[in-house]
Write a structure and sequence with these properties.
mainly beta, Methylamine Dehydrogenase, Chain H, five-stranded antiparallel β-sheet, 2 helices, globular
């Protein structure tokens, strides 16, 4: 069949359009995941915090708000959130506030947090959140939360066990931890219903209450806990801080292990006693990649390969051994970026080559020169070592003020931090070859309605 000149022009035009359309289709934007951020818009009795949500664009990393969000968090002062059961349910831990309306709650009496709870949300299409039920921990001043990998159990760390209100050498803290103990923290364990997501309390089968003769409803941990983590078959609590005079809690000095029964949710004190770490200002314990990181906000001077580095804080990498004991990696203590302070969170990107440390800094409002993200390259041969990524030995340019968390998107292209001091989310493009972080092609900073307290990513978009 022959084409006229006009027909040939039409055919060529159609072919060109098809090629252009095909190329356009190849780069069509779509949502690769959702980013959720908890925030403390208000800090008065009876007022809710919020949960904000954003769609993550696969091609650019651009964030766009999820319809119907933000929503009320279900209580005041939200500090943690967890996704479980294939991201069908989201749980938000609301710390509450004092009777006078202060979010700086701690201890017992007038300084204690009131109306603390765990609020359950159903995750719907397009990342929407619908509140379901509210649940309550057994202790006072809850502040940390995680779920096991199976989604069967949810764990909440309470800074103060119920008996701390009236301490005694014969109370439940003493029964569980030793006769010389009068106060302790506790872990509340919930079983998660696999169909409805509803939480039910797991009682402590090892300790019988002094008053009722029944198992106590929590698992005591040493006094003044700072953070906890689940690693393998152990729950490790970083503790040892002095009695707090404010929140957040710092000053961890040792780790106490529980063995974890994944079939029942029971926690049993390991045969290993509490393990001193040789630090005084521990801020967090985090499972990231193959290592357990303890973060410590105190000065350190280290000489490595003939180079001496002085930093305001440090990172201690460990591996878990028998009975929940920690074994230091051969590299020993690793200095934080010398310009940063108060490390609180760790991210190992999905290929396991780079580590990012979120440093909150030491201020509480406004721009903070000591806050930001430090980036490291992981070397595992001949020994485990973290070394600063080239050009990243200072605060990553454009980072927000006071990062509370750091997450990687489901496609492994972008890294986000949520910031407390300037109420923003900051996004960066991750270079998979070098680990460097650079600005998104669109805006890298997104404003929140109030200070951020935590963030997490959901990879389920259907």
């Amino acid at each position: 069949m022959k084409f006229t000149k006009f027909g040939k022009a039409l055919a060529i035009g159609a072919l060109s359009a098809a090629i252009v359309f095909g190329m356009t289709s190849c780069v069509e934007s779509y949502t690769v995941g959702y980013l959720y951020v908890t925030g403390t818009v208000t800090a008065s009795t009876g007022s809710n915090g919020i949960v904000s949500g954003f769609r993550i664009d696969h091609n650019t990393g651009r964030l766009t708000p999820i319809n119907t969000l933000p929503v009320a968090s279900g209580g005041a002062n939200p500090v943690r959130a967890v996704l479980t059961l294939g991201s069908r349910f989201l749980y938000v831990l609301n710390r509450g506030v004092t009777a006078s309306g202060s979010a700086n709650c701690y201890g017992t009496g007038a300084n204690a947090c009131l109306n603390s709870n765990v609020t359950q949300f159903a995750v719907g299409g397009n990342g929407t959140l619908t509140p379901q039920e509210t649940f309550y921990t057994q202790g006072i001043n809850p502040f940390r939360m995680f779920s096991d990998t199976s989604g069967n159990f949810l764990f909440v760390l309470d800074h103060d066990a119920p008996d701390n209100a009236i301490p005694s050498s014969t109370d439940n803290c003493a029964l569980a931890l030793g006769t010389s103990v009068t106060t302790c923290g506790d872990i509340t364990v919930f079983k998660i219903d696999q169909n409805t997501g509803r939480l039910s309390l797991v009682v402590n089968a090892q300790v019988t209450a002094t008053t009722s003769g029944q198992p106590i409803t929590y698992f005591p941990v040493p006094a003044n806990p700072v953070d906890f983590v689940l690693s393998g078959g152990s729950v490790l609590t970083l503790a040892g801080a002095p009695n707090p005079t404010g929140y957040p809690y710092t000053g961890g000095t040792f780790v106490s292990p529980y063995s974890y029964a994944s079939s029942s949710g029971q926690l049993t004190l390991s045969q290993n006693s509490s393990q001193p770490l040789g630090i005084h200002q521990g801020t967090a314990i985090v499972q990231a990649g193959s290592a357990i990181f303890v973060l410590d906000n105190e000065p350190i001077t280290v000489t490595f390969n003939g180079v001496t580095t002085t930093s305001q804080s440090q990172i201690l990498p460990y591996t878990l051994t028998t009975g929940g004991a920690l074994q230091a990696e051969p590299s020993g203590v690793i200095p934080d970026d010398p310009n940063l302070a108060n490390p609180i969170e760790v991210l190992v990107e999905n290929k396991g080559q780079f580590v990012y440390i979120a440093n909150q800094g030491n201020n509480v409002t406004g721009p903070n020169p000591n806050s930001g993200i430090a980036a490291y390259h992981i070397t595992t041969s001949p020994a485990y070592q973290l070394s600063f990524i080239s050009d990243e030995a200072t605060v990553i340019a454009g980072s927000g003020s006071g990062p509370q968390c750091i997450v990687e998107d489901p496609s492994g292209q972008f890294i986000y931090e949520a910031n407390q001091y300037d109420s923003t989310v900051t996004g960066r493009v991750l270079n998979p070859e070098t680990g460097d972080l650079s600005d998104l092609r669109v805006t890298s900073t997104y404003n929140l309605q109030g200070p951020a307290s935590w963030c997490l990513v959901d990879g389920r978009t259907s």
